[in-house]
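Sample entry (93 residues):
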Amino acid sequence: MVVSWHTLQPVRRARVVLGLLDGKLEQTAEASEASYTDAKSGQVVYAYHVKLGRLQADCVYLYGALHEGAEPQFGTFPHRPAGADAIHVHQLR
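Predicted structure, serialized as tokens:
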């Protein structure tokens, strides 16, 4: 499972916190950064990706994508045994 998001400026301490729906965010994973130049606007876009591991099958997870200077963006996803899709979080500011 991968959580991805993008920003228009580089950020510090990009990471994801993860837990079950009980609200206990017990895992933290640091994000990797990649950048590219948008072909239409010419603006540099910074993409952040976190691969999540050790997930239990048939559980619903709560995650928060965050970095310094921004409010976390929270979401949930069900984890199925195989074939799960990536999660994409919209632009954080």
